[in-house]
Amino acid sequence: MSIGTTEFDYDLFVIGAGSGGTRASRIAASYGARVAVAEEYRVGGTCVIRGCVPKKLLVYASHFAEDFETAEGYGWTIGETSFDWKKLIARKDTEIDRLNGLYLNTLNNAGVEIMLGRAVVEGPNTIRMGDKVITADKILVAVGGWPTMPDVPGIEHAITSNEALHLEEFPKRIVVVGGGYIAVEFAGIFGGMGSDVIQLYRGEQILRGFDDDIRNRLADEMRKKGMDVRVGVNVTAIEKTDTGVSLTLTDGTTLEADAVMYATGRSPNTKGLGLDTAGVELAKNGAVKVDAYGKTNVASIFAVGDVTDRVQLTPVAIKEGHAFALTEFGGMTVSPEHDAIPTAVFSQPPIGTVGLSEAEAREKFTDIDVYESDFRPMKHTLGGSNERAYTKLIVDKATDKVVGAHMIGLDSAEIIQGIGIAVKAELTKTQFDSTVAVHPSSAEEFVLMRNPR
After folding, report:
1. 250-265 pLDDT per residue, tens
2. Which member of 157, 338, 406, 439 is catalytic?
């Protein structure tokens, strides 16, 4: 079908106006497609409304207590300080409103029609919104994911990251259940703001899937900052109390807290979407099964982003949405690549990583070299903190290519972007070594490691 035919109401109908859906809508419209996007909550999706953006703002806020201590080591006299949770949340909400407005303007300026409400798929080319039936040549599902909660007695008394961003009162005592990046980030947020934080994870170490050296060092640093990180333990029951919640643990002990937050995973948000009635194949967890170009087993239906449960990262959803639009409406054949994706964890201290972990590299390659540097960041020498930083490069010995780069410490999230380009470009350790160091900086450690361990 050529763009502009009147056989259907739209050339493209997008369900979900998050990062992936918005990008796909805008790019498709730029090629002349008649595009509509449906959103049942707020335009912007998980990242902008209830994910990485508000979370990062809270991360910034949580650092100031340490910054005040550091400042004294640099000659500043710090007076009495206090923290106002409600003021922070109000300021955060104002910024989210601003970003929501920008997303709306972007879609409107691109000529995309925005429909607020829930859309349900009724067939390969049919969508229903309330009493209205809409047809489209192509349907793109970009509804993202949603926090999952385990089947624990009293789980209704727990919150997720969604509610944590809107708490009316600041929890002086909070238990965070989970060991992934959302769990460690919120543990750091509440800990930095003054909460007594206990983090519980049923596995042997937090951040499963990350490099083991990074995982171990983060757990150590979090404990040094006063967070009680407990592994190999889980919650068996939650009870509501007059002051908050009471938790019973697998080791038989109990905990009292003002709140308990679960960050134990996210599932594709496909329940009740009607994809099964349209014949779309779904995985057991509800994820939409797609090929390398986002196409489902139904030729007219596509999916991008977290709903496909491939790589749950906002920039990946954006790339997938863009690639879909270029392929289906731009006359190109573009498949988003999912290798060497730089990732940041805004824990305290933060983490930056790209490529393979040491364990993954040992499985993939016959022989590898591992380079590492453990150091105290220069800022802390006068600031007084005993927090350390650590960098690590993993090299395929046969080709000299750097196949993994990892860092924990100040500015690692900013540093890893540039290193990610190098790893994506398959640069060699020799090329890293020949690069002049930026001195004094933590980033220079990546080009100064000379001897494998």
Report:
1. 999 999 999 999 999 9
2. 439
Share of the chain above pLDDT 90, in %: 96
Report the alpha-carbon distance of residue 271 to residue 267 in Å, rounded: 10
pLDDT along the chain (453 residues), means of 10: 70 96 97 96 87 96 96 96 97 95 94 96 96 97 95 97 96 98 98 98 97 98 98 98 97 97 95 94 96 97 96 94 98 94 97 98 98 96 95 98 98 97 98 98 97 95
- The single-letter DSSP state of residue 424 is H
136/39 same-domain check: yes
d(CA 303, CA 130): 22
Beta strands, E only, 290-449: 301-303, 343-345, 351-355, 368-375, 389-396, 402-408
CB 140 within 8 A of CB 304: yes
Give me 149's structure tokens.
């909660």
Q: What is the pTM of this model?
A: 0.95
Residue ranges making up the domain that contains 353 = 343-447
The DSSP secondary-structure symbol of 179 reads -
The separation between the first and the last C-alpha atoms of the chain, rounded to the nearest angstrom, is: 59
Shared domain check, 257 and 357: no
Q: Apex CA 397: angle with CA 394 and CA 401, to 5°?
A: 60
Whether 166 is a known active-site residue: answer no
What is the domain-level CATH number for residue 405?
Answer: 3.30.390.30
Whether residues 86 and 165 share a domain: the answer is no
Pick from 210, 240, 209, 26: which is nearest to 112 by CA?
Answer: 26
Total number of residues shown for the chain: 453
| CA-based torsion, 58, 63, 68, 74: positive or negative | negative
| Angle ∠(343,208,416) on CA atoms, nearest 5 | 20
Distance of CA 197 to the CA centre of its chain: 21
Total domains in the chain come to 3
Do 220 and 313 share a domain, yes or no?
no
Q: What is the pLDDT of residue 129?
A: 95
